[in-house]
Amino acid sequence: MTSASTTPPSESLSFWPVTDVGRVRDHNEDSFLVDKKLQLFVVCDGMGGHAAGEVASNLAARTVREVLLGQREALLDFERGTGSTARTDVLRLMESAVQQACSAVFQEGQKDETKRGMGTTLVALLLIGSRGFIAHVGDSRIYLYRQGSVHQLTEDHSLINELLRRGRLTREQIDQLQYKNAVTRAVGVYESVEVDTLDFDVLRGDRFLLCSDGLHGYFEPPELGKLFGETPDAELSQKLIDLSNERGGKDNITSIVVKVPDAESGMDRLAREVNLKLETLHQMSLFRFLTYQELVRVMNSTQVRSFAPGTFVVREGDEGDELFIVLTGRVRVESAKAPIAELGPGQHFGEMALVDKAPRSADVTAMEEASLLSIRRREFFDIIRKDHGIAVKLLWSFLGVLTERLRNTSRELGEAREGKAFTDDEILTTLTLDDDA
Q1: How many CB atoms lie within 10 A of CB 103?
Q2: Which of 28, 105, 340, 383 could form a disulfide with 21 if both were Cys (CB 3.0 to 4.6 A apart)?
């Protein structure tokens, strides 16, 4: 009982959705929706019994589409970049669409006692130009296959994932858990729901997989990456369905593979810039524990600033609120016109400004044409406030950085007191660099 829809490549995207009842269930409560004009893709996995799950998943997917279709002008405005619609407006629209779907499913359940309490997971991917937008509730997933690697762009709202995050469960104990499929959030069970959203750069050659847990429960990212690399795009959805059935098929199975056309010749400017920013952030101690999805959230809060040779980036004595990371070029750090350091790509300075309002303790100037990534204090605290998982990782890393700095400074001061390493001027230089670089 497999229903499939294969759409020939359009000028922008190709996509291949497939859904299957699996080998155990007697009816399919999964739903998918593809709107080619909106470039909208939705997968829902319903729950509730008495065909209520099928009603919930269908209604939720259709409602999301109707809400976004009703705001078509705003979406076109964002795509053209000529009006007042910002990416944050699109994210709010995605969240609103899911909230309205939640209300619609809830209200439908109130009309029929046999369907009361029905609900559905939901993942929605909206592609507008070179920007992607995700709205997500439950344990259906969206994966990104980019340049040979698979990245999970959604985090499961499930009992298993919550226990894993809290350290109350190991991966080896998952098979012993009684309620493996229990979700902690669902669309329609209550009148409203907390919705996760994410926006990100879409690059030429990107592939996406939207799927229900009946599929992703049988695969790990390394195997998905291998399948993406070895299977023709038009055959991948069906192959994943077939493998899921071979491995048990205990649930309904839905897959949508979406392909962004490859670049005509090599890597384009946007791809190089995105790769550089993500790679640079990932190499920093402050962000080393973040997942790909979390790095994208941090990157969305950054700005790229360019400086001509000889231009001041920061001035000694000024109040600062930015961490700077060198992407390209080189900068010079000086205090009282005494050189302290030269920093190149991947190096950073000013992280104390994220938590401290003390004046800058050094001048920093561009030695050549330089491109710097900056994160402001306000955006940093916005990330921490909105995402507790990222907050714990960032604050733990920040504590580690400060502890290492303190340990090094204490050791160097001890050596200086013994007259083994530093002059007075060198001690001042060390302390200044520790504060700012």
Answers
A1: 17
A2: 28
Residues 69 and 182 in one domain: yes
Residues with Cβ within 8 Å of residue 337, at least 6 apart in sequence: 363
Copy the structure tokens of residue 112. Answer: 């029929």
pLDDT at res. 165? 63
Phi and psi at residue 259, to the nearest 5°: -120, 125
Q: Is residue 405 over pLDDT 80?
A: no
Which structural domain, as residue segments, surrounds residue 115?
A: 2-265
Q: Does the pLDDT of residue 322 top 60, yes or no?
A: yes
Whether 227 and 254 share a structural domain: yes
Summarize pLDDT for 47-92 with one digit per residue, the tens: 987 679 999 999 999 999 999 999 999 999 999 988 789 999 999 9
> What does the chain come to in residues?
437
Residue 173 and residue 99 in one domain: yes
Could you give the dihedral angle defined by the CA atoms of residues 273, 277, 283 and 286, in that order, rounded to the nearest 10 degrees? 180
**Which CATH number goes with the domain that contains 115?**
3.60.40.10
Cα–Cα dist 366/384, whole Å: 30
Q: Residue 432's pLDDT is what?
A: 47
Domain finish residue from 233, 265, 297:
265
Supply the CATH number for residue 281's domain: 2.60.120.10
Q: In b/e form, how buried is each residue of 253-262, taking b as 16+ CB within 10 angstroms? A: bbbbbbbbee
Residue 228 and residue 275 share a domain? no
What is the model's pTM?
A: 0.86
Q: Is residue 154 within 8 Å of residue 141, measured between CB atoms?
A: yes
Q: Examine the pLDDT at 9 and tell me if it is beyond 70.
A: no
* 275 shares a domain with 419: yes
**Residues 242, 391: Cα–Cα separation, whole Å:** 40
How many whole angstroms separate alpha carbon 336 and alpha carbon 229?
A: 55
Strands (E), 272-361: 303-307, 312-314, 322-328, 331-335, 338-343, 348-349
- DSSP secondary structure string for all residues of 75-128: HHHHHHT-SS--HHHHHHHHHHHHHHHHHHHHHHHHH-GGGTT-EEEEEEEEEE
